[in-house]
Queue: 4 jobs
Job 1
Amino acid sequence: MVARVETAVLPADGREQQQAKRSPFSILVIALVGVIVFLTLYPLGIIVAGAVLPGGRFDATIWAETLMAPGLFQAVSNTAIIAAVNTAVSVPLGVFFAWLIERTDARIGGMSRLLPVIPLMLPPVALTIGWLFLADPRAGYLVAPLVDALHAVGIPVQPSTLAIQSWGGLIFLYVLYSVPHVYVIAAAAFSSLDPSLEEAARVCGSNRFKCFFKVSMPAIRYAIGSSALLCIISSIALYSIPALLGTAARIDVLSVYIYRLLNYSYPPQTAQAVVLGLITILVIGSVWLLQRKIASRTGHAQMGGMGVRLNPLALGPWKWPARIAVLAYVVMTSILPLLALLVVALQPFWSREINLSLLSLKNFLDFWERGASREAIYNSALLAIASATAVVLTGGLLAIFAKQTGGLWEKTVGVITKVPSAVPNIVFAVGVLVAFGFSPFHLSGTWLIIFLAYIVVFLPSASIAAESSVQQVGNQLVDAARVFGAGPGRTFRTVQLPLILPGLAAGWALVFAIVVGELNVAAILAGPRNPVIGYLILALFDNGTYSQLAALATIIGVIAAITVSATLLLARPKFSN
């Protein structure tokens, strides 16, 4: 495999583009684009027409009321701050961990690939509650010991200073949520990248960290840009973390602001929520176009046609500090909240004082004995598998097609796959319910309506991971397949799919881990007839039954841990160590 750095990925010539567009593979992809457009625009069109164009006329009053509403500017400012800080911290940290594990001898066997993605194995709402158990100033398990330790060394600190319900705690959890997403994309790019560039830099005398900053990072620049885009999208759309912590800290963000418009206003201010969603579409679309333009100008390394085996970079005396840094990250951001959830799950109620005589499996047994709970877990697991598979294959096919055709088609496909990310999930869920829940489809109360919503909602995350992997595949391999008479479909199956499989697997694991405990869509589309885990989480949290919520989070963690671990290990490149 020969690495090649290009300033841009050149599309096929005009005749090849026309042939590609007429092939069965391209017809299939174009039909798939049509389905995605329908599933996306039909629900959005219904709510936009009903809310923004009442009576078929544009109403500027709605826009004025929305943009001049008290509290909106503060919510937008807070969201922008969180998105900027989260991206600035999460992207370098996730890329650095990916480099350590994929390109150096700091790895600790096969488990090293799983360590940075452990936070993916809990839904954000359960992870947030785990840290609430740890860092609540009144009953958190870590606050009192830390305060006592700091007082012992002469540092006077109040418990409220260490509270998770603060700006620091909010950004910390955003970073905790985002780093694994950055890691899976960057690790897939590093694992597929030819090491010859790094080896050449080392031969020329570059030290370890200069090699990282000057060679390794520029070689996966497209993946880094995709990770940054994903961080920005998740910072804008994430609801559970700011809802649980931001409200208590009086830090309003856009997602919570929109949720209140729909759930705490009478009548629900759907029009205002839709207006904010449309504005967000423009913002995220602009960021995506900027990321594409920067990536095309700066270039990135691609896989060529000869296979080589990775020779890990020896960190020397830095190997164990690097390993300790990865392990410390896992302990501080994953293992501790998981242990807190488990301790609370084993107690009859949440208490800072742990009485060993009261610990039992009663919460787990009571939860499992309920038929609705078992059904919710079963439904969520199937929906997560089906949704992750559907969106990852769709994202891969569309990314390949976009690269083959280039030009206007490439931009069109990119915009179509990013539009859903700009619409708040809860707003889109309302549109899906109105569009498909009643006549003529009558899907309300079924798992199919949730599945359709998940396909659209999580397509942006899967397409970003797929695009990053596709851009790492050089034109040499595709051109060689064409020389030997392979059509677009066969080229995809035999050449491109095996090479982008690590990236697709990373996207699959990412989507699965989110869907299995998804909250926003479940709040609108799930119910007693089609329960999912997100529906149970909302019910338990509203009732204040933290011990049962902790038990449910632990069960989710086990399911996600097994599935995500198996996926990332089985789909790693065959030539990796």
Job 2
Amino acid sequence: MPKPLKIFLIALTSLVLLVAILIGGIFIFVNPNDYKDEITTAVHDATGRDLTIAGDIKLSIFPWLGLTLGATQLSNAKGFGNAPFASVDAVDIKVKLLPLLHKRIEMQKILLHGLHANLAKDKTGHSNWDDLTTSKAKPVAKPIAPTTPATPSAPVPDNTTDNTMGALGALAIDGLELKNARLTWEDQQSGQHIVVENLNLSTGPLALPAPVDVSLSLDLQMQKPDIQSHINFSGQVVMDPNKQQYQANKLRLTVKASGKGLPISPVDVSLRANVHADIAQQQANITQLQLDTLDMTVNGQASIVNLDKNPAVSGHVSLADFSPRNVVSQLGIKLPAMADKNALGKANLETDFNASLNGANLKNLSIVLDDTRLSGTAIVANFTSPRIEFRLAANDMDLDRYLPPPAEKTTPSKPATSTTSGAATSNTPVPLAPLRRLDLDGSMSLGKLKVIGARLSNLQVTVKAKGGQIRLQPIQASLYDGHFDGDIGLNVITDTPRTSINEKLSTVNIGPLLKDVMGDELVSGKANVSAQLSTTGMDIDTIKRTLNGKANFNFRDGKVKGVNIGQMLREANAKIKNKPAPPKTENVTDFAEMSGSVTIQNGIVRNDDLDAKSPLLRIQGKGKADLPNELINYRVNTAIVESNEGQTGKELEDLKSLIIPIKVSGNLTDPRYSLDLKPVLEARAKKAVEAEKKKIKKRAEKKLEQKKKDVVEDLKKKLKLKF
């Protein structure tokens, strides 16, 4: 070993031993508790606060330079009550002595037990720590400027960051232990009161940038809002200040909360994730994210860029199978009765996303609700005033599962009104403000749809909404061997919404449609129907009263169920002839073609040009239906035509050319049919009189002819005798 180096090491060792002996002497011969008064006086002079050291002060030296402090408290600021600002039961800090000589700080676990801190803000907005952060140093007089210009000095490089990072890198702590701490926050301006108690924090060794295990638990109580919760946190933290990189691995957070300030109470939340942040690159990654709450599990991952300004996030998120019905129940919301008690039993969601502070874009969106699978894309632009665009497609949807159960069928004993109708109506006000704010542009396709019993396929709907104007156009679908085209508009600008409907049915097999929708094939045949309607209001009663518009219809090769006009005529004819009633047949009226038009004014539906034809009959009708009161007053005029129906036609042979009226009245859901025989009898009597007149005339003419012949013969005889 070179001699100079050997001399240096001997001198350095001697110096260290000398320092150790001196410090040891201080510890042996000086009792730090003798200086409590000086310490408290110094604190009071510096802060104006009273420091009370009730416990002993203990110092240690080799190999650890340490301080152990017993029960200690610091008084509160003036005007904030008698409770201490902060107190602690025990503090233990120890630093290894020899590494200090190499500019390294090695510390044992820092222990802080029984810390209590009372933080507050008064009604004027001042806090009880303002006086501790305000400098009390006297201002230093500025030196007199020199008379000659000073030579500009070279700029001093700012090495604060590097020095700080280097100091942190040389810091090694065996861990932190904060035990049984309690913090309170009282805000007299807002009335908010927060208490954190049973606060326990424990870490593994702190030697940056090595990983550090961290665990934290606390109880939290709040007022305004009223919330109580227990929080647990654990994870492994990795910090590299030199590279400005930070990680939280195996992060786990659990929260059990309750209270009136929560929309759901009680509620449990569990969060797991790994987080990596690179401040230098202004980006972060979240992986293996799992959030559990309300029987729902959300998994995902995300990347964030531009952390300091205009952050943008992209990633993938999925919501595992859950029961919406159970979730709604936990939210305290009572669902209305549904036709299918198992509806809303299963759902899940999965999507890729891009989002910023201004909007979000969902791609590869997949949603499952019960048996419906929906996929597509959605965009939300401008969160402050959202504009939503979507393109969605679904395989099969049964909306009837979610509608109220069908009402029990009853036979009305009197004409129904809006309050006596067996059909359930809802007069619950519809909130219009959200509809007015809608800015929407979307389309949806459905392979199959079932709604109010009707079964549609290949449904295509485009919807647009802006400024209180909502429009579904075009609406196209295949149904019952035919086609539907629709255009529906809703205007909610005013407090009385207005709805317009323009729709068309082409070659639809109307019988099965009515069977599915109304439970009975009231009319069958191939139907072509067009309608242009308008109404105001959102409840059923108002819609009926304000319905206006027109419609045209044409049916071919069908039947009208509930009335057999031919049977009615045969029975009437038998009654007139005083013969036995004919045998009953099916209660339907066949027609080859039926057409007409309808006008609607304030819920009163009028038809004056019904025209129906069959091999046996010609039918014309006119009358009206009162939708608000569900009443009908209609008259059908029937005429018998030539028929090839054998005996059936022959039975009505003598009624040919007679106009036979049938009256339809009563309730729309259960109309009454009656045959007006008076005109029939009058017409029959008139026909009989005319026939008798013809017979008399014929007999008279015959007698007159015979008389003429007799006169001629008589004249011939007389003339013969004369000549």
Job 3
Amino acid sequence: MTNTVNDTVLLSSEIRRLDENSTLLGISPLQLMEAAGKSVADILSTRVNVKNKKVVVVAGTGNNGGDGFVTARYLANCGAFVTIILVGKEDDIRTKEAKRNWLILKGLRLSTKLYEAPDIDSLLKLRDEIINADIIIDAIFGIGFRGKIREPYATAIRLMNESKGFKIAIDIPSGIEADTGNAGGEAFKANLTVTFQAMKPGLLKAKEYSGEVIVTNIGIPIEAKYIISLSDVRRCFKKRNIFAKKGDYGRVLIVGGSFTFTGAPTLSALAAFQTGIDLAFILAPKNIINVIRSYSPDIIAIPLKSEDYLSTRDVDLILGWCKKVDVMVIGPGLGLEEETKKAVREIVSKADLPIVIDADGIKALSGYLDLVKSKRVVFTPHSKEFEILTGKPFPPPVDIINRMRVAKEVAKTYNVVFLVKGREDIITDGDKVRLNMTGNALMTVGGTGDTLTGIIAALIAKGIPLLDAACAAAFLNGLAGDIASNHEVYITAYKLIKYIPEAIRTVLKEDIVERSHIYNTLFEFDSET
């Protein structure tokens, strides 16, 4: 087997994620289809002089068929006699990109012949066309195939396999599952498979069907691998069970606030509510508890023993509440009293639940990172807080690659999740690294980090894994800011919170990818306004 790009092996779900993220970055599915089809034609042309050769493309009604239509057009331009057989009818073509390329072929009457073959009889009438081809191109199923090959596709594949012509599969031989290599019957047996962007596990496991494999680059940018996708966010939201009761969708405990800072823990709680939790508790010093209560009747505010700042006297009370909730946030507005920092370290070391550590909680753990090693922890520092916490210099914003590397190394060392806030948020668990590119310069105001913390906690409370929750929260917090920038001259964190539900609704819309790519055109704003 030959791999002309790299040795990466990706599951079909990961390939679909790359496709989706390419659209978010402004590369349309039509562009990817054009690049895919052209790459197949170019690779074939380097192997065979296609001029005056009889080429038959057997295509399905999905995007794999669309790739085949593009391949047919390029081969026709190289002087091949091209026949395209659609296994189905024109009206069955499922995507607008494939339909567009089919209609282009319908206008090329001098160089191509088109047939619709929706059933076995119509395929058998084209048997000689297929059997006598010099080159057979399989564009029926692609990586979406699962299960058993049904008619009329089984007949189409059988006829293709009977041909003595040179056989090429586009992306994966039809009838082979991309992730497992399982054959759903008599799968297409290729001499050559041209697959896109990365090797698929099924190609490695079904060598008798895939033949020689060439991995070709179709222009998916490296950023598509790292940015948070819409599907990454969507899977964090499910419809509520009609028999749900209070508490089933998450209880969040926030340990924060001090005589100086009363708003920070409240912002986290309100953001958590807007992300769909059922209950939010704030444990804060007794002298500020009524101030916190005055912000919202939704919040359950519980006084600590301490009057103005968290102290070690409060540890047992907080640990007791940790047993009643799904996740704890610690840090917003705590202040940096030595007694407070000591209490944070004791709470974090003893608590046995997921913890989101933000703001002053991060500073309290400077020099004490071993306390969180392999605990269920998400840190949310900005670059300076990252340096204070880890003692490591953090590369400047323009050096994104090294920022990702450093964050990943620290996360791996301590087996925790880091969300390093910046123009591009970096999220990593030491294994995977993700970038978030939503958000804008109007969000530099105080408190937007507290809203982010609340969203993370809400998703964790609803059972979402820590890395997934951090990724989705970064995306939603930034997207809420982008939406807010369309309505507000300036943003405050309190204003930002009311746009969180709209950000969620936007992500859940089925046509969001169709409408535009989110990072540059879906929410246009002027950060200098």
Job 4
Amino acid sequence: MAKIPEQFIQQVLQATDIVEFIGQYLTLTKRGKEYLGLCPFHDDRRPSLNVSPVKQIYKCFACQAGGNAIRFLMDFEKITFPEAVRSLAQRANMNMPVEVDTTPASPGMKKNDLLEIVALAQEYFKAQLRSPTGKAALDYARSRGLSDDTIQRFHLGYAPDSWDALASAARRKGYRDSQLIAAGLAAPREDGGCYDRFRNRLMFPIYDLSGRTIAFGGRALSSEERAKYINSPETPLFDKSSQMYAINWSRDAIRQTRQAIVVEGYLDALIPIQCGVHNVVATLGTALTGRHVRQLAHFAGEVVLVFDADQAGAAAAQRALEEFIAQQVSVRVATIPAGKDPADFCLSHGGEAFKTLIADAPDAMQYVLDRHMAAYRDAGSNLADRRRIIEDFLQLIVNSAAYGAIDQVRRGQLAQHVGHLLNVPAVDLQQQMQRLARRSTTRSQAPTPAAALSAGAPLAEREIIEVLLNAPQLFDHAAERMDPDDFTDPGLRAIALHIWQKGGQGRLHLDELLANEQMITLGPLITELVAAGERRANYQATLVGAVDEIVRRRSTREVDALKTADSDDALRKLAQHLRHDDMRRTPRIN
């Protein structure tokens, strides 16, 4: 496959405003000349991702992630460099000048092939729902309260009651059985071939944040099926512990309201949206995970969990609370009256009543505490039971992940709140929380590859790159006295090679430098150097001192090498070297 021209990559980057682009994935807040948001590449509890609209780069000062829009897309969506360029080009309505190759998502399988075959399956299921074959599925969807507009908007479909209907349709389009299996649409037969994974089910396409179909959920239409709902299996496209249903449709409403409502099923998300509650998402057959919480934290300051009013719902709320405390996201818990789910409630009482239910939802800490209090009341006046219940509740607060995210003020407020409800002195509770916290182990974060890349690099080499990335007009002053071979650190030398290439052409600009696959790979190091240079400033004096140090180091090394040679010819070379070095010296920059 042909290499993507750097000029085209640069045009794609120029057509992509990085603040607007990253803002589609995260909630960004303007802070001075830059924008700030929660970093999606580590367990970020306090916004540490900076986005520069001037330099068109991002940088996380906690985990060292950084780069341009291409690097962000590669890391966020776990795709290759060519795939990221193609995706950004499509967003900008630009045609790729060459056909690009992609890294296989699994042995013999490219991720783009998987996306294509899943999209094919969506269109196939959608057509089947509107065919005579799908009449029973369409009738069922309507009987559950879904309008035809909702069915059309969310691309619901029907998987026929056949062992290989989809597989046969895909084969006719030129796809292989191995591709269907890799995409999670089929399962292999013992005697060869494959059979459709979804049969006689109402189909719900699952999308990623970019609006691409990546998986499906299927609702059984036959009472004989043991599993009412099944989802696609884990694939290179689909990770159910991090994906959420309807996030692609609800993201803007979540960002606008700063609130996300989390339910547990497809219909429980679609019916409220149909009734005018647009900031709803659903988990996909799993408990709410830390990755779910981090994703929601990028868009919302508050999350409302909607669970069944039973013991299982209470347990789910408590598990989720630990994750939200760790992320410092406000969380409340709403319970639907017994015997109903969010879809039933909205259909019976309307969207406004559901909004009221959400607005009246208690704080999750209060919700969980009320459950513990109920257990305490049931335990009567037994002192041991009371002590155990208090300790269990405090252990939730001082969970190793959560407690470290709560500042001293918040800990004091929690202790006072709990102390008031339990009629226990707050100071006693704080001391007990500290004791419990000491038992917990703290988690440490491993250094990132970017940090390891620059570790131990000579200061002068770092300073030269820092200056040239921020003040490219000073390139000639460095190039007159040194070249990339003077860099000993591999990462810095790789950057220097591109700086000297671009600088020699009079085109040393950060955006052009990053319009290169190798430089994008080094994006975290480059953005680290840009940020360090901005902090250091004083570019001219820094460059002069650093270049002097590089020249002195090189001269010392060369002189030492010549001194080891025992001949008159070596002495002549030494004298020539010293005269040549004097000629290379230039006046200090004014």
